[in-house]
Every structure is written in C-alpha cells, then in structure tokens.
Amino acid sequence: ETFDRELDITNNFAVPVSVTQIQIADTGKDDDLCHKYFSTPLFDSLTEGQKPKADRKDSLKGVSVRFHFQSDENVGPFPKKCMLSLDTDRVGRQNLPLIIYSGELIGDLDL
What number of other Cβ atoms are within 10 A of residue 64's Cβ? Predict the structure, then answer.
C-alpha cells in the first residue's frame, strides 16, 4: 500500500527556479531504508519540458513523494531521517527532511 503526498514548495529566491532532478537520500547506516519507504515516481516519469518550475514567490507544482507502507517491519521507537534532495538549475541542491516513525509513544508511569 502507498500514500502520495504533493508538496507545497514556494520559491523564495529572487530568480525563477526549475527542478532538474529529485532524489531520495539516505542519512544513516542503512542505505536501503529510505528507498524502501519513499519514492518519486511522478517526477521520474516527467520529460524535460514537464519538470516543475516556479517564478519568484510562486509554488513549484508537481513535486510529490510516495510513501510505501511496510507491514512486516517495525521501525522502532526512534525516528529515522531521510532527505528529499531537489537539484535546481539556478540555486543548487535543496534538501528537505523526510521522517519515518512508528507513531507509538513509549513511557514509564510512576504510580
């Protein structure tokens, strides 16, 4: 099962920006973890003329991330961090954090 989320990213730079490449980047020891949970299939299918671009103060349309639910794995009590890397034509690489967590809260009660 998957869940797609379109991102609302505003171009705050003084120049128009085009996204030339999007990558899911691992930040920890487990190099496959981030690619197991996240992908960018919509962007990967775009041709050069369809890639997202935005003028100053406009939103980049068409940037989305797909989350892949993993029913057979527990990520543990501590969040895992991945990065969504956006390569652009004018302002270099921009990194956005992607966090994986179980949603479970663990605590001790003193009674």
Answer: 16
Residue 31 scores a pLDDT above 70: no
The structure tokens 């270099």 sit at 92
**Distance separating alpha carbons of residues 21 and 18, to the nearest angstrom:** 9
Note whether 50 and 79 are within 8 A (CB): no
Residue 36 φ then ψ, to 5°:
-75, -35
- What string of DSSP letters covers 8-42? -EE--SSS-EEEEEEEEEE-SS-TTHHHHHEE-HH
Which residues does 104 contact at the CB level (< 8 Å), separation at least 6? 77
pTM: 0.79
CA 79 vs. chain centroid, Å, equals: 15
pLDDT tens-digit series, residues 54-103 = 999 999 888 899 999 887 667 777 788 899 999 999 999 999 999 888 77
Mean pLDDT of 98-110: 77
